[in-house]
């Protein structure tokens, strides 16, 4: 992989770094494509991956409406795209106000389920006060970011799809996550230690990005002290998921993946140009402007077979499309850090058999895999219900405790575990503070989840 052949800047932060920008309370943020902050300065290509190019403080608000009593720092940083070329993207970093000085503050990179092409769904926009992002999943996932903050951890929330919103692309989500962590650790005003233990967490589309970061860590960013990754229902095989969801209640999700990937796979774009009907082309164009929930609602039971001039199976079996689906499949390398995989057996979106294969592949490659294969939950419910277990597992990694068992596999449902409800009680209290705009202090969720 070529991460840039030009000479790199030697500083931790870009020599042309912009002054720290103050936010204006109550102002409505501009969309990323109309916001100069997202434009990297000339010559940024020569900076090291993870170099901070610009920074600013911003106000966050739950659902864009309920202001939060915290200050977040946004960092535009140099990273790498799918083909190893220089790129820039943004992460939103929240550091806890209450810290102990004995040990470095742990850092969690939380990958939201962006699952869309539209910039309104990027966390750096959707989490801001005044953001118009109805249907962006990141706005709801802020409740889990708050739970991590309550543990006393700093949290980096990267725009892991990059500024182009390339949902489903391989490798580069991992680069974006890892470079976002480098940027946060390098940014002096955040006062984070380069030696800090780092954890990864994401669910669904965020789990996919987290898995790419875990897989690419050793090769791309061995300098990071990564101690564990939580892969919540990662989309292990997007090709399989496309076939599974096409024509269902969730047809909008695979449609957005195809729309995004056509921008980075020229042969796929050519297949679409040659075989999609006018209606099909218009549909793919329109979903690029939709939030995740909007696309799902507007495309219920939309069958791509009705939008092409060949049978869909024939198109999916062409070498060009098979190459795309093969290249975006997880499991190309086994992570060198422990991973917790969380997956519902009765998941209506992600096939449990695909995640079984991924867990087996990681384990065969030497990864310490703890696999929670939940027998009762479905896709959406498992995310919040697994949060207490996830936070406890990350806390153990930050404390350098040994993984309980190599390739542990559990089936006991989270719904039947008393510790789930103790943890959910605390998560409910944290959510109540978020909903009322009160400060989320350091009162660890794990204290009730034992």
UniProtKB/TrEMBL annotation:
InterPro entries on file: AB_hydrolase_fold (IPR029058), Lipase_secreted (IPR005152)
Transmembrane segments: none
Matches recorded under Pfam families: LIP
Coiled coil (UniProt feature): none
Region (Disordered): 17-41
This protein's name: Lipase family protein
Source species of the chain: Mycolicibacterium arenosum
Lineage: Bacteria, Bacillati, Actinomycetota, Actinomycetes, Mycobacteriales
């Amino acid at each position: 992989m070529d991460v840039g052949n030009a000479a790199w800047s030697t500083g931790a932060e870009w020599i042309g770094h912009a002054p720290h920008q103050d936010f204006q309370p109550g102002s409505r943020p501009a969309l990323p494509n109309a916001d100069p902050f997202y434009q990297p300065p000339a010559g940024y290509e020569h900076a090291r991956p993870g170099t901070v190019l610009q920074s600013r403080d911003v106000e966050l608000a739950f659902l864009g409406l309920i202001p939060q009593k915290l200050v977040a720092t946004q960092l535009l940083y140099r990273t790498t795209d799918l083909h190893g070329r220089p790129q820039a993207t943004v992460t939103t970093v929240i550091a806890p106000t209450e810290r102990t000085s004995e040990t470095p503050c742990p850092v969690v990179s939380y990958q939201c389920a962006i699952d869309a092409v539209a910039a309104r769904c990027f966390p750096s926009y959707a989490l801001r006060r005044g953001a118009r992002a109805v249907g962006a999943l990141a706005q709801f996932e802020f409740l889990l970011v708050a739970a991590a903050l309550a543990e006393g951890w700093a949290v980096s929330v990267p725009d892991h799809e990059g500024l182009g919103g390339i949902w489903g692309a391989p490798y580069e989500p991992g680069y974006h996550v890892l470079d976002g962590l480098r940027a946060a650790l390098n940014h002096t005003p955040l006062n984070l230690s380069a030696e800090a233990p780092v954890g990864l967490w994401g669910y669904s589309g965020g789990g996919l990005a987290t898995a790419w970061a875990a897989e690419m860590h050793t090769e791309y960013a061995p300098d990071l002290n990564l101690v564990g990754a939580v892969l919540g229902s990662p989309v292990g095989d997007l090709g399989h998921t496309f076939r599974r969801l096409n024509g269902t209640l969730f047809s909008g999700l695979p449609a957005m993946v195809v729309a995004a990937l056509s921008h980075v796979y020229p042969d796929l774009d050519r297949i679409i140009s040659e075989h999609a009907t006018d209606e099909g082309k218009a549909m793919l164009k329109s979903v690029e402007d939709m939030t995740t929930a909007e696309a799902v609602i507007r495309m219920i039971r939309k069958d791509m077979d009705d939008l092409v001039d060949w049978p869909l199976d024939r198109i999916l079996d062409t070498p060009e499309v098979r190459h795309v689906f093969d290249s975006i499949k997880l499991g190309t390398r086994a992570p060198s850090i422990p991973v917790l995989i969380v997956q519902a057996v009765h998941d209506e979106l992600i096939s449990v058999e695909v995640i079984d294969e991924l867990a087996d592949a990681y384990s065969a490659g030497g990864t310490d895999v703890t696999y929670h294969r939940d027998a009762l939950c479905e896709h959406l419910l498992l995310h919040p219900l697994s949060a207490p277990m996830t936070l406890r597992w990350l806390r153990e990694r930050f404390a350098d405790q040994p993984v309980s068992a190599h390739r542990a596999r559990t089936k006991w449902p989270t719904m039947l575990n008393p510790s789930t409800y103790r943890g959910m009680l605390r998560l409910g209290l944290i959510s109540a503070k978020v909903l009322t705009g009160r400060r989320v202090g350091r009162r660890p969720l794990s204290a009730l989840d034992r």
